[in-house]
């Protein structure tokens, strides 16, 4: 049976992550409070955010910017603003 967490992003009980994906306090916070579903949503946003902003994850400033967006999206009900991104029309 999957580990259950109360997901702070989705505001409901859901399957938790199988293991801590990020080291340190932020990783523990994500592991304890974010569901697999919310993490999968973040991963899609993260990819677009990195690509549209041409982030280099070897650059500490770029990594800090990405981490700020992650915290905003997962814990503060934030929307990730992706400059230049236009959603496909249906």
Structure write-up:
With 90 residues, this protein is mainly alpha-helical. It has one domain: Fe(II) trafficking protein YggX (YggX-like, Orthogonal Bundle). It is built from 3 helices and 2 strands; from the N terminus they run E-E-H-H-H. Strands 1-2 form a two-stranded antiparallel ribbon. It is globular. The N and C termini lie far apart (38 Å). 13% of the residues are buried. The mean pLDDT is 91.
Provide the fold topology.
Blueprint: E1 4-7, E2 12-15, H1 24-33, H2 36-52, H3 60-75
Antiparallel strand pairs: 1-2
Organism: Alginatibacterium sediminis
GO molecular function, one term: iron ion binding
Keywords: Iron
Please state the CA-atom Rg, rounded to the nearest Å. Answer: 14 Å
How many domains? 1
Fraction of residues in H or I helices: 40-55%
Strand order of the largest sheet: 1-2
Q: What do we call the CATH topology? A: YggX-like
Q: Specify the CATH homologous superfamily.
A: Fe(II) trafficking protein YggX
* Helix count, DSSP H or I runs of 4 or more residues: 3
Compute the number of strand runs: 2
Query: How far apart, in Å, are the first and last alpha carbons?
Result: 38 Å
- Unreliable residue stretches: none
Main beta sheet strand tally, sense and closure: 2 strands, antiparallel
Structural class by sheet pairing and helices: mainly alpha
Overall CATH class: Mainly Alpha
The 3D shape can be described as globular
CATH architecture: Orthogonal Bundle
Give the averaged pLDDT, no decimals. 91
Order of helices and strands: EEHHH
Keywords: Iron
GO biological process, one term: cellular response to oxidative stress
Organism: Alginatibacterium sediminis
Protein name: Probable Fe(2+)-trafficking protein
């Amino acid at each position: 049976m999957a580990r259950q967490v109360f997901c702070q992003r989705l505001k409901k009980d859901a399957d938790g992550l199988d293991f801590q994906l990020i080291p340190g306090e932020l990783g523990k916070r994500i592991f304890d409070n974010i569901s697999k579903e919310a993490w999968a949503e973040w991963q899609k946003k993260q990819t677009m955010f990195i690509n549209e902003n041409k982030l280099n994850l070897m650059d500490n400033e770029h990594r800090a910017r990405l981490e700020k967006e992650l915290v905003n999206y997962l814990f503060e009900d934030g929307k990730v603003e992706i400059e230049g991104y236009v959603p496909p029309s249906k």
